[in-house]
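Listing 4. Sequential folding, example run.
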Amino acid sequence: MSLAIPAMARWLVRQEAGSIPPRIRRIALHSLIDTLGVISAGGRTRVAAHARLLVQGDGAAGTCGLAGSDQRTQARHAALVNAVAAHALDFDDNCYAGFVHGSAVIVPAALAVAQQIDADGQALLTALVVGAECQYTLGLASDNRLYRRGWWSSGILGPIGACAAAAWLLRLDAQQAAHALGLAAASAAGIKAGFGTDAKALLAGRAAEAGVMAAWLAQAGATGPIDAFEHRHGVAHLFNDDHFDGSVFSALGQRWTLEDPGLDVKRIPVCLSSHAAVDVVVELIAAHGVRSEEILAIRCDVPPIVIANLIHDRPQTPQQAQFSMPFAIAAAVLHGGPRLQDLEAARLAQADMIALMARVSMCSSTQWQNPARQQQAPEGAEVCIQLSDGRQLHGRRDAPRGAAREPLTPEQRREKFLECLRYGGVDEHIANERLAQLEGMEALTGVRTLFPFST
């Protein structure tokens, strides 16, 4: 069986815009629009400001846009800053092929290189597909084990997706692309201990930057370990209990992971592990006309991975709140959220928020010990709301709204994008103009005008 990295390299260098089905390109376009919106909102966060200070201190000018700034910089710096912004609010998409945040890393890397070389819109979309298919196929090969072990898969697999997209844009040959991917794999890093801190967003930035650097270095002649996944000291052995199914790479370009398992696009800006439970609560409250003061308790029965991810029962910071089931549920009940405006320290300190969070709990029943059940509902939830009049309301969701199996409507996608740009300080008129520009991506002759969004 051939090695994973050379197989990916041979596949990616053969791709052209016409080799990718229109339906897959549409998925990539939706991902691009969603991610650029999230980047715009994330550009106003404290952690994105830290990243900007880091690269602006370098003083290197360039042609690539920076989130939260009108300045332009070099590709590696833009990839870093924009990936930090893309993940800062945990509002970016997810793929269960790897349990990975792919677009937050791949889009900034591809956009940065495309802006540096002044590529057109069609090329940018093709690069996004190439990066996504390489990264998510690796996710399939790993069978999500590294995530369950406590590694942060976006930091481990993200450099590969970023590198593949950059390698395609730079038109590396198969040998150069293999060395680039080997360099990217050698830089893999990420632990879930960083959840609820700046580390998580910064690691997304690092993954995007690492992928871009690997592609540039390979173009210049640098070499990397092309057996980085199968080597006795490689990724599969060190991170994944020696489990690695290399057979999946034969399906590159036949099974499109952007379609199957597809992307889960977030409706609310918190960890996806809370979304199904939030949707159940919102639906039960709407159906039964429940008022917050009637609620005695809300119990969420969820898979073990949800409990492992949502570690902050009493969050003290907005970042901790993004990994808190009590916060997500309380914000949904009190404010119809969580929305971007809810991720503020003042909201966390409100008496009604604190009181309601104390009534939310999680458990994991024996149903989640069934592998088939976990496969069906990897972050699902069964919820019971206990009311003061003695009623108990029950609901269940295997997947939230926005999941690949229940996608957001075009209007919901549009409203999310505009909401993100408003939060990022962009004028409504300009936001609508930028959305129209993005929707016409395939006809763009150059992508340097795409980003940053002018305020």
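-- end of first protein; second protein begins --
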Amino acid sequence: MSNDPAAKFDPSRAGEYQQQSRIALAGYDACHELSACMLAAALGSGQAARVLVVGAGGGGQEIVTAGALEPAWQFVAVDPSDPMMELAVAQIEAKGLADRTSFHLGYVDDLPAHDRFDAATLIGVLHHLPGDAAKRSILAAIASRLQPGAPLILAGNRFAYRSQPLLLAAWGQRWRMHGATPAEIEAKLGKILQGADPPHSEEAVDALLQGAGFEPPTRFFSSLFWGAWIARRKAN
């Protein structure tokens, strides 16, 4: 596995990201819609807010969805992959949300340490980071830039893939449903087994979040390996 997860998202992978993600994650759009709804419920609908969107590349779907729901929200989009960020910029501009979005090509740690946000999202990122140390680091960096009590939406895979053979087989069938050949399915299974390192359980997700300074999370979405949670930054 590369020490730089952003290197995986070259122009060819970035170009297919939105279509491929909707196959790999059954309920891709529903997850983003519910994430926006959870944030609006936590913050109060109609309220102004600054939202940190980490891993916004690939279309900025978090911003497109939440921006349509809450016209008073402003966004800071962060992603280390240039090709993926280009896709996000194009999509956000096409939806008329560029005037409410600032783009940062890089990492959360590059943002000013004193900057504070009312909410944050980390969707589809954590399982690309190798090892628990990297996972804790990004969650702690986000927590340090949130107001006390501010909500974080975390979404991503949350099982060791080989530990759930039935889910892995169903994931392969999902690709078959969308026209993949047996050889293509085998290649995709090989890529996910070698190229990602998700937390090994829901309890591991809970421990990572609480260790980074968040309250115990509440899960609100699940799809095979995927889960989505909301957790608030601890008040102290």
